[in-house]
Amino acid sequence: MDRREILNLELIALNIRRNILRLIRAGEAGHAGGALSSAEILTALYYNLMKVDPGNPGWTLRDRFVLSAGHKCLVLYATLAEKGFFDKSVLDTYGALDSRIPGHPNMHKLPGVETNTGALGHGLSIAGGMALGLRLDRSPAKVYVLMGDGELAEGSNWEAASAAAMHRLENLIVFVDRNKLQISGPTTEVMNYEPLDQRWRSFGWGVRIIDGHDFEAIIGRVNEAPFEKGKPSVIIADTVKSKGLSFAEGRVDYHYWKAKPEELKQAELDLDNIEKQLTAKTENIGQ
Ligand SMILES: Cc1ncc(C[n+]2csc(CCOP(=O)(O)OP(=O)(O)O)c2C)c(N)n1
Ligand SMILES: [Mg+2]
Predict the structure, then answer these.
(1) Is 123 close to ligand 1, i.e. is its CB under 6 Å away?
(2) What is the pLDDT of residue 287?
């Protein structure tokens, strides 16, 4: 990929992080950690990989995105708003009664949300059904799923993984956001599924491991899917929870962040610093 294209995606991911901060400010709290760790994955999907039309969210030929880990909804709202599915002013209603953007995504309230999620461990089953249905319709559309690494502790995922392999769902591509933390601690201490690549492989999937903050890796691997003929694909994305916030990166306390005013100030400064770095990179390319 061209350096300019990558920089452009990095700038969009920064805007998405700014939108996440705006949501947290509005709601005074939210699931920040897992939203921030997956900002690059959603940016790559919505700005490079997926065929979607913000003006026509129900377009039959669209690719589908299922946010299986529904508590990561801040990153979905932030991305859909950035992409123009709805007005950014809606972000300021987060936490309000009757908001169109509740604590877990609701397809009946917001255009662009494909299915309701929030109870972990159900998105993969739903996505498998979508992928099978699309194949029966001879649709070229693909189904993308974002799962949390802690979410994998739900047994229902592994039944869905077996079914997807049995049905040879080549049009199904799953990301596992391996930020190594879940709600109460390190995933390896709460429910250890490592080595995760071997586990997925044994369930009949094609597997790749990437740096989940690296656009070339995200886009490059997705473009190679299916990784193995007749198999669904999973990309294990190594990420940092709360990526971008100096005081919160890799800390379990920010899984759900009740934001203090001084933390919000620091978060703004951190994102301003990222912007400065990106501006410097842009100037370098220009020379
Ligand atoms: C069925 C179910 N059990 C428990 C929860 C509570 N819960 C919300 S987030 C979370 C941890 C998820 O961790 P992970 O999937 O690693 O997400 P991330 O690190 O990206 O935030 C849990 C247990 C839930 N939403 N659904
Ligand atoms: Mg996690």
Answers:
(1) no
(2) 64
Architecture of domain 3-286: 3-Layer(aba) Sandwich (3.40)
Residue of 116, 151, 187, 257 best suited for mutating to test ligand 1, as the one with most atoms within 8 Å of CB: 151
The full set of domain ranges for the chain reads: 3-286
Cα separation, 155 vs 285, whole angstroms:
48
The response to whether residue 181 sits with its C-beta less than 6 Å from ligand 1 reads yes
Predicted confidence band at 286 (pLDDT cuts at 50, 70, 90)?
confident
Ligand 1: atom nearest CA of 31 is: 21
Burial 148-157 (b: 16+ CB within 10 A, else e): bbbbbbbeeb
Q: Give the position, in ligand 1's atom list, of the atom nearest the Cα of 187.
A: 16
- Chain segment 64-119, per-residue pLDDT in tens: 999 999 999 999 999 999 999 999 999 999 999 999 999 999 999 999 999 999 99
Could you tell me what percent of the chain has a pLDDT over 70?
Answer: 100
> What tens digit of pLDDT does each residue of 119-146 get?
999 999 999 999 999 999 999 999 999 9
Q: Which amino acid is at 110?
A: L
Ligand 1 within 6 A of CB of 206: no
Distance from Cα 148 to the centre of ligand 1, integer Å: 7
Going 133 to 135 to 140 to 146, the CA torsion angle's sign is positive
